[in-house]
Amino acid sequence: MKFYISTTGIKRLTISSAGTGKASPATRRISGRTVLPLVLVLALILPFLFVRIAFIVLESATACSSTLDCIGWRFFSGSDESMLREELTRALLEAKDGKVDNNEEGIESFNQLVQEMTLKQQDVKAFAFKTKAMLSRMEHNVQSARQRESIYWHLASHGVPKSLHCLCLKLAEEYAVNAMARSRLPPPEYVSRLSDPSFHHLVLLTDNVLAASVVISSTVEKSANPENLIFHIVTDKKTYTPMHAWFALHSIQSAVVEVKGLHQYEWSQEVNVAVKEMLEIHRLIWGEYYKKLKEEDFEYDGEHKRFLEALSPSCLSLMNLLRIYIPELFPDLNKIVFLDDDIVVQHDISSLWELDLNGNVVGAVVNSWDGDNCCPGRKYKDYFNFSHPIISSNFDHNRCAWLYGMNVFDLEAWRQANITETYRHWLKLSQESGLTLWRPGIIPPALIAFEGHVHHIDPLWHVAGLGSRSPEVPRDILEAASVIHFSGPAKPWLEIGFPEVRGLWNKHVNSSNKFVRKCRIMG
């Protein structure tokens, strides 16, 4: 058989037998008008079919036992994308409710996941479970990293900076060699003012020399009548000499400063025994709380920050715990303003002594500056164990707690109401109840002792929380507050202090002082 193709435009195609030179009767003519469209159609369809079949073969390689069966079914079944979506959805839902094998060697990255799926030719279900396992491990690692960071952050708040330790050593040395550093505080001509009710008496219980200097300098600077201010500083024995040296060498203009060590008090045997009992019960509560913390699965405990704050060394600080004995520390005073050592006074606070407490013992901020009923994290449920019947039957878990750190105390009303005795009673009750009534610290038993004896004052008198994570106090509130309080772990003298608010404290540090410069204290 021979083919004859016309060279003039391919108008016809002649097929003849091989044994004769003439066209046989069987000769077939196919018109060019029929062949050309057929060739064009095939040219368009065949590449598409090839690619389509190739994709189906690849996708069905791990899903079907027979590739030909899958090709036939998928090729004629309609939308393959819809089918894949449904299959993947089913696999993800199954993985969501399924358990992940944590003992299996984990996939750490997306590239590893792709390599695993490609080499082992696993199905969509395996892909979903492996993806879930990978994401679960990543979430666990992120959570663990955040909690470790929180632990390190709190640990950093527990230590004494090298600069503050240096300052105490330099001042103690100065006290030993410089007679001026040992001069009497206050000078003899001002001793009579220490118990004179016509003056404004402020009390600080602290072992931090630098912090005390900031409190006093900021108060005097903002006072309209600093000559009326009498500061009473109570400190421990080890801090007494540097504290005395600082205020002896840096006298405060007009105001009077008294520095007294605990070793200089002559308390009765009864008070000494009561103080020792108080310290021991607080240590036991702290120890019980620490024991429970170790038994918890700390990595997954959402309350870890609260645990860490409750276990802060300040909960066992003698200077903090002795606040409840202020009437015994100052038997000749009737009305005082108590200031914590991590506060800064921004406006004149003289009117606090004219405040009528309406027969109550303490004047304190209760409501929040933002208009809410309570300051954040300051409800009774944040301090007490309401699963215990003694607590749940006596207190409301939504009751607002008042702020400690800047308070007006009527010491005469305090003595008449037996506040300290009530405090001791509840400490003993806590010991008898398994030490589980409240979190460690002075605040929970103090809230109970002062229950019904609190006079609410304007929230702008005292804005707290500047030492907690992410202080979100608006700038206008900070400026309007009479006293700002760096309550929380991030104290302004620590490196972890927040830069956005630290400047409010640093500006009151005497950065020109030779001891401050030698010890390289930030200021």
Describe this structure in words.
By secondary structure, the chain is of the alpha/beta class. The protein has 19 helices and 13 strands. Strand 4, helix 7 and strand 5 (229-235) form a beta-alpha-beta unit. Helix 5 (124-158) runs parallel beside helix 10, helix 9 (269-295) crosses helix 15 and helix 15 (419-432) packs across helix 16. The longest helix has 35 residues, at 124-158. It is elongated, with a radius of gyration of 40 Å. It starts with a strand and ends in a 5-residue tail after the last helix. The model is unreliable at 2-11, 18-27 and 73-78 (pLDDT under 50).
The main β sheet shows up as:
7 strands, mixed
Low-pLDDT residue spans = 2-11, 18-27, 73-78
Count of alpha/pi helices: 19
Q: Please, what is the average pLDDT?
A: 82
Main β-sheet, spatial strand arrangement: 6-5-4-7-10-9-11
What structural class results from the helix and strand content? alpha/beta
Gyration radius (Cα, Å) is 40 Å
Strand content: 5-15%
Number of strands: 13
Q: What would you call the shape?
A: elongated
- Alpha carbon gap, first and last residue: 107 Å
The helicity comes to 40-55%
